[in-house]
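User: I'm curious whether this sequence folds into something compact or stays loose and floppy. Could you predict its structure so I can see for myself?
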Amino acid sequence: MAAANGMPESLADFEDAILGAGLDPAVESLIGQAGRAGIGDEGALQLLLSARRLAPAHPAPLIAHYRFHFYARRLAEAREVAVDAIALAARPLGLPADWRQVRPETQWPAERMAELRAHAVAPRFYLFALKGYAYLSLRLGDADEGRAVLDLLDRLDPTDSLGHRVLGSVLARAGRDVDYDEPEAAAATPEPAP
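Assistant: Here's the prediction. I'll summarize afterward.
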């Protein structure tokens, strides 16, 4: 069920929305049309912006908008949409919209960790949004921002259930010529002389 502002009323409703429930058929149609238009098509972008205006609190238009920019290699724009996704996902979890204000020790209780281990949709969506933002920050050369998000992810997801630590490896290798087919340790070890 959605409130008057379009935001799902409960955590369960938000999780259902992440999975596509409760989406107005007109909004779903706009997203579908955009998907058929092709990568980077400006008409598709206008359809997605219309979908977001019609359903500003539903994750589906937001996800489609993010993917539009990501697959078109418009990384700065995708990162802006990731900020919106983080803010949207934060609210039903009782977290601040700005990830920099999240204090895991007081705002991410043991129950949330249990939900994460049980693959609850809302915490995972939040963490995936953070991971996407971290990745895009690193790709855009904003290593300090990327590192800060990865530090938060380490505290929110200490078991690395979503694989964010691989981004830390990318950050650690920045500027080095590494053969990505070899393990990092092997790539850093020179071959013995014959």
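Summary: Residues 54 and 180 are 43 Å apart (CA to CA). DSSP finds eleven helices and no strands in the chain.
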